[in-house]
Amino acid sequence: MIETLYSILNSFYYATLMPVAVLGAIILAIVLFVFILKVKSKITKTIFCIIVSVLLLFSYHIVPYIFTTKARLADTTQDIVRNYDCAIKTAILPAHKGIIALEYAISILDPQEIKSKYEEAYKYLKKYEPKVAWYMAGWFYLRTGEYEKAMEIFKYNNYYHEISIIYILQNDYETALEYSNKTIERKVYDQILAQRAGIYKKLNKNNLAKEDFSKALALAKNKKRNIKFLKCIYKDPKTCYEQTYRKPF
């Protein structure tokens, strides 16, 4: 009930209030610009020019974020695709376009769409964000089942969480546990705790599994994260990750 209410409020906020805020900022910028034309003082003109610039930057930055958030909250594939496409088109910086395209690729399951969006993301990122592009290439190989290539990239860059996911997909839960522990040594967050809990279940360490999952839920409630996804990981990590990240060609 709480999750549903939060989702409804979040959807309303980003679908209604944020666009209104952006529209208001643009209108205010136009009004101030007209006012600037009539002002004679150079100092006043400079101040108002700065204000107009900030308002326009706010608009340009928030618009793609609105579409990205609406895509995350969307229930149908059509709405997801439409909103991500709008987010990419409205983002100005190439790096920003690339990051949105990367998120888009991770969120879809159709093999041809995955390939297309990863290529689009790589085009934007390779020049401006090479490290992100490298990470993205690893995710592409993971999504398409080329685990050796993905593993080579993730191990070279010490992406422990991603390495643990690959071992889960290969049914190697002992090694997955090792890399989950390394991830937790760096940073504790809800998904990795739910993942380790799921691994403990597979290894018949039920008390440790329950303890980790309780911690994961506590963190998720504090941050209002997706509890449904955490439950999916806890129930069966491999099946959950296959459904979420993979669809064979």
Structure in words:
This protein is mainly α. It contains 13 helices and no strands. The chain has helices at residues 2-38, 42-73, 77-90, 94-107, 111-128, 130-143, 147-156, 160-169, 173-186, 190-202, 206-223, 227-235, 237-245. The two termini are 38 Å apart. The model is unreliable at 1-17 (pLDDT under 50).
Name its key features:
0% strand, 85% helix, elongated, single chain, 13 helices, 249 residues, mainly alpha
How much of the residues is beta strand, in percent?
A: under 5%
The major pleated sheet works out as: none
What form results from the Cα inertia axes?
elongated
Unreliable spans: 1-17
SSE-based structural type? mainly alpha
Helical residues, percent: over 70%
- SS element count, helices: 13
The gist of it:
The protein has 249 residues and is mainly alpha-helical.
